[in-house]
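Quick one, probably user error.
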């Protein structure tokens, strides 16, 4: 195992008491900043009858109104193109992105020079050092560059730190596999879905990615990097360690794994995190599942205060084996509150289904979950496909029996399973859309 490395040991290992004092100071400053700079936030806080000076303790933060993505959409619809939540004029922007729009109209994102070259760099240095990446590594980025932020920030920060970057945009998956070997890449990033897909492509080419020089695989964009069976599948295919990287386009990247992989650390120096009950929005105890709410503590362009990111997590504030005192998310992102669904009286996380599917060797890495309309009388349907056309009918029959037994044991009810033809389910380079809801 690599040696533990810190980007800023003093900040990463400080006591909880000192960290909370730092967070309070930074929260008060950022709230005052958006109140002065953002028309949306000024109106929002005036209507709520609250001012930055009212925040005396961290517990006072609960009185501050939430920010939700729909507000950002409506702001930009009302005052295109940037809305009235930005804190800097457009002429200061040096990078623009937009959200994927998987749950609605995309939100336009802008970053000024300081956010792009100073704050993003600071954030990702925590990631780089925790993963054990050094300037002798070669990062291959298999990503079609565009408006989706994806790996832009990670690449830019590591490039600024002195890591060699091999850009893998505008290439086929086969060409990307060849390039990983040709350029001697030691670090690769991607969504869990695409990292597994590259493994399938390599296998068809007659090569094994485990024989490449890649030792660090960074996965983001989906919960899979901390789904145990998915992480194991990625590490088996690539022959390296798979690390979680979590964030969103609008609030940026806030979580990373260390070499011990005991949950995903939250960079609490730059973010204030809360874990709230999805329905009551009251705090839940550490170890209980709740909705993650985040506040930017450092950015200038579009700081978001008490942003409901919709991810479901479990907090763990015990000091990690690596020595970091950042809170950790046990299991990383467990799912999204708007992806979680109820069936047969059970709250179902898509990641829990993924964990069962990945353990069946006869299945490929692709699948779909079809959630029936409430009261329709239909069963939950899982679409899978054979790992290859070499899987015999008898092997598939045994695999289905194994899957249904495991599903019933883990998730407590029996689904309908539909087997698609090999390689007919959708493939994704970015975020996979696996949950389909019947209308």
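Nope, works fine. Designed sequence:
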């Amino acid at each position: 195992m690599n040696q533990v490395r810190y980007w800023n040991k003093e900040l990463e290992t400080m006591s909880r008491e000192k960290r909370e004092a730092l967070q309070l100071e930074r929260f008060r400053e950022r709230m005052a900043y958006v109140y002065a700079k953002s028309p949306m936030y000024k109106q929002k806080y005036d209507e709520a009858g609250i001012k930055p000076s009212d925040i005396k303790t961290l517990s006072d933060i609960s009185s501050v109104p939430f920010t939700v993505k729909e507000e950002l959409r409506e702001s930009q619809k009302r005052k295109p193109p940037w809305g009235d939540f930005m804190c800097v004029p457009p002429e200061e922007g040096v990078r623009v992105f937009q959200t994927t729009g998987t749950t609605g109209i995309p939100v336009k994102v802008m970053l000024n020079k300081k956010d792009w070259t100073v704050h993003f760099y600071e954030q990702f240095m925590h990631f780089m050092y925790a993963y054990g990446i050094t300037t002798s590594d070669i990062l291959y980025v298999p990503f079609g560059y565009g408006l989706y932020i994806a790996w832009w920030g990670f690449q830019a920060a590591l490039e600024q730190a002195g890591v060699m970057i091999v850009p893998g945009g505008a290439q086929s998956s086969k060409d990307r596999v060849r390039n990983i070997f040709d350029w001697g890449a030691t670090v690769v990033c991607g969504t869990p879905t695409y990292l597994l897909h590259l493994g399938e492509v390599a296998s068809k080419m007659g090569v094994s990615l485990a024989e490449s020089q890649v030792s660090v695989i960074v996965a983001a964009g989906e919960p899979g990097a901390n789904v145990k069976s998915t992480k194991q599948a990625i590490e088996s295919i690539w022959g390296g360690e798979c690390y979680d990287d979590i964030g969103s386009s609008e609030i940026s990247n806030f979580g990373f794994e260390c070499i011990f992989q005991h949950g995903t650390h939250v960079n609490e120096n730059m973010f204030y995190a809360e874990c709230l009950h999805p329905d009551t929005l009251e705090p839940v105890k550490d170890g209980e599942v709740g909705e993650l709410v985040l506040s930017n503590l450092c950015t200038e362009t579009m700081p978001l205060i008490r942003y409901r990111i919709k991810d479901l997590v479990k907090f763990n504030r015990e000091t990690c084996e690596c020595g970091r005192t950042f809170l950790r998310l046990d299991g990383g992102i467990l799912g999204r509150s708007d992806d979680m669904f109820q069936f047969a009286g059970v709250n179902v996380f898509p990641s829990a289904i993924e964990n069962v599917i990945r353990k069946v060797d006869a299945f490929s890495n692709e699948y779909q979950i079809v959630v029936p309309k409430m009261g329709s009388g239909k069963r939950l349907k899982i679409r899978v496909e054979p790992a290859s056309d070499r899987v015999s009918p008898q092997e598939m029959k045994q695999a289905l029996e194994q899957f249904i037994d495991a599903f019933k044991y883990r998730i407590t009810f029996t689904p309908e399973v539909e087997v698609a033809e090999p390689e007919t389910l959708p493939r994704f380079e970015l975020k996979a859309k696996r949950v389909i809801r019947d209308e």
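The chain has eleven helices and 20 strands.
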